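Technical annex, item 7. During the second reporting period the consortium partners agreed on a shared format for inverse folding records so that results from different sites could be compared directly. Each record opens with the tokenized structure and is followed by the designed sequence. A conforming record, contributed by the partner at site C, is shown below for reference.
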């Protein structure tokens, strides 16, 4: 799998603080911002997931502008043809691709340890992300929401907030 750059964010926070990067450290992860409607849709996805005690998934419409990954649109996917966690990998891969969509967001609600749900992508999540890349051959944006206000997001092809190579969309 191509390397991914990572950003951990609070959904309510729209700005990123400046980072100082030592010479030997990897480039900083790009800041992520959510348009108000996208943030509200992700919060609703979380609330539905908690109420059902099952994972939920949605497509992300995102762009890289001025060194920032901007998530502008979110559309929840239904649970039809879902796996045991309530998500259909095939549906999310086919439905959440370019040019309309840039990747997916899903929830982790099952308690992982005393801190709560897993704050990172699972091995199964990484497999689905790899399947998405194989299908679309394009940069992707993926997030996992693990609390009412917190998410872990990754963007491929973005280094320090700037696109590191051309985006390929077929």
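Designed sequence (site C submission):
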């Amino acid at each position: 799998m191509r390397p991914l750059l990572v950003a951990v964010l609070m959904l309510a926070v729209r700005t990123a603080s400046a980072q100082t990067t030592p010479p030997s450290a990897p480039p900083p992860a790009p800041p992520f911002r959510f348009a108000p409607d996208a943030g509200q849709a992700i919060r609703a996805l979380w609330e539905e997931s908690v109420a059902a005690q099952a994972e939920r998934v949605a497509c992300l419409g995102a762009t890289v502008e001025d060194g920032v990954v901007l998530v502008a649109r979110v559309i929840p996917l239904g649970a039809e043809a879902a796996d045991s966690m309530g998500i259909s990998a095939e549906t999310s891969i086919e439905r959440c691709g370019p040019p309309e969509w840039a990747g997916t967001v899903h929830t982790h609600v099952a308690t992982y340890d005393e801190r709560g749900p897993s704050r990172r992508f699972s091995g199964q999540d990484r497999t689905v992300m790899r399947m998405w890349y194989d299908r679309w051959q394009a940069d992707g944006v993926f997030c996992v929401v693990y609390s009412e206000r917190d998410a872990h997001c990754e963007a491929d092809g973005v280094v320090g907030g700037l696109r590191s190579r051309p985006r390929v969309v077929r």
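Helices lie at 36-52, 89-95, 123-136. The first strand starts at residue 5 and ends at 10. All partners now use this format for quarterly exchanges.
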